[in-house]
């Protein structure tokens, strides 16, 4: 699919995490396993910018976010971020908090499905990155911890107080964000925080299967579904129905919808092109 492009080049090499694209699947792998993939200022900035570029690449239909080693992401690095924040003036602090929020905004507004493959701990900002993804596949050893209050900050950070109640309900979100206790994979599954929990050894296989399914399916239908889910969160019913009516009418003229009908009449499986 040809994407509208500006004169600036797409970035191929990212210094602060591993990045690759193969068969329509883009993969970001946090690569500081010795620090449980704790985030630095540079990781935040690169992630924000990559997600903004992703829809314009033309070769990625799904994004997988994973972590090397024993954990998905343990949040902001205490030495490299929290220590430095103590030295900053309010204007600099606001610039930082807006940058971290921009990562979550980009994840939700990116018209590409995002899968978080959570192995081990997803804490602090790591838990919100997983929360902002469309699918959360958890290893049985995985856990969440929205631990902002445990470091003396508001539990409402990076959009967590907006997203989490909509996923698990206000009562559960209050408990998770206010107390900051660890949530194991079984509990995450029972409250709707996990899309699926699998054996640790099967996480990569399950993630690959879901990513392949999304990448090889009707990509335009998937992306518009994500966009409408995001946009309709704060709409009234009448506005939502009208937006869906307009969108559905447009997609009825898509190549994939025509291909479905051709495949159905010919008794074969559709060959999706994402158009």
Quick recap of the structure?
The protein is of the alpha/beta class and 275 residues long. The chain has helices spanning 41-57, 78-85, 90-109, 125-132, 160-168, 170-179, 185-190, 203-216, 219-231, 237-251, 255-266; strands at 18-22, 25-30, 62-67, 114-118, 121-123, 135-139, 143-145, 183-184, 196-198. The mean pLDDT is 94.
Mean pLDDT, as a whole number?
Answer: 94
The tally of beta strands, per DSSP, is 9
Total count of helical runs of at least 4 residues: 11
Strand content is 5-15%
First-to-last CA distance: 8 Å
Task: Please state the oligomeric state of the protein chains shown.
Answer: single chain
Structure write-up:
With about 280 residues, the protein is of the alpha/beta class. Helix content is about 50%, strand content about 15%. It is built from eleven helices and nine strands. The protein has helices spanning about 40-55, 80-85, 90-110, 125-130, 160-170, 170-180, 185-190, 205-215, 220-230, 235-250, 255-265, and strands spanning about 20, 25-30, 60-65, 115-120, 120-125, 135-140, 145, 185, 195-200. The protein has a six-stranded mixed beta sheet with strand order 1-2-3-4-6-9, sandwiched between helices. The chain has a three-stranded mixed beta sheet with strand order 5-7-8. β2, α1 and β3 (about 60-65) form a beta-alpha-beta unit. α5 (about 160-170) packs across α6 (about 170-180). It is globular. The protein starts with 17 loop residues before the first strand and ends in a 9-residue tail after the last helix. The model has no long low-confidence stretch (mean pLDDT about 95).
């Amino acid at each position: 699919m040809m994407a509208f492009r500006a004169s600036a080049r797409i970035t191929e090499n990212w210094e602060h995490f591993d990045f690759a694209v193969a068969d329509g699947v883009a993969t970001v792998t946090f690569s500081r396993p010795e620090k449980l993939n704790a985030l630095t200022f540079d990781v935040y900035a690169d992630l924000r910018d990559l997600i903004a570029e992703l829809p314009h690449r033309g070769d990625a239909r799904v994004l997988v976010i994973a972590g090397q080693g024993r954990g998905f992401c343990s949040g902001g690095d205490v030495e490299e971020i929290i220590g430095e924040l103590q030295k900053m003036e309010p204007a600099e602090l606001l610039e930082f908090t807006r940058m971290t929020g921009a990562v979550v905004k980009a994840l939700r507004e990116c018209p590409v499905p995002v899968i978080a493959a959570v192995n081990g701990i997803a804490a602090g900002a790591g838990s919100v990155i997983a929360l902002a993804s469309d699918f959360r596949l958890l290893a049985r050893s995985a856990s969440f911890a929205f631990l902002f209050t445990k470091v003396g900050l508001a539990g409402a950070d990076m959009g967590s107080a907006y997203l989490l109640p909509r996923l698990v309900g206000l009562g559960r979100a209050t408990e998770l964000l206010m107390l900051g206790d660890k949530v194991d994979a079984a509990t995450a599954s029972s409250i709707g925080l996990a899309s699926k929990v699998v054996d640790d050894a099967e996480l990569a296989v399950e993630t690959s299967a879901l990513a392949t399914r999304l990448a090889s399916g009707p990509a335009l239908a998937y992306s518009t579904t994500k966009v409408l889910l995001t946009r309709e969160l704060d709409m009234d019913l009448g506005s939502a129905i009208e937006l869906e009516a307009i969108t559905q009418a447009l997609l009825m003229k898509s190549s994939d919808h025509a291909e479905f009908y051709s495949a159905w009449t010919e008794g074969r499986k559709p060959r999706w092109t994402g158009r």
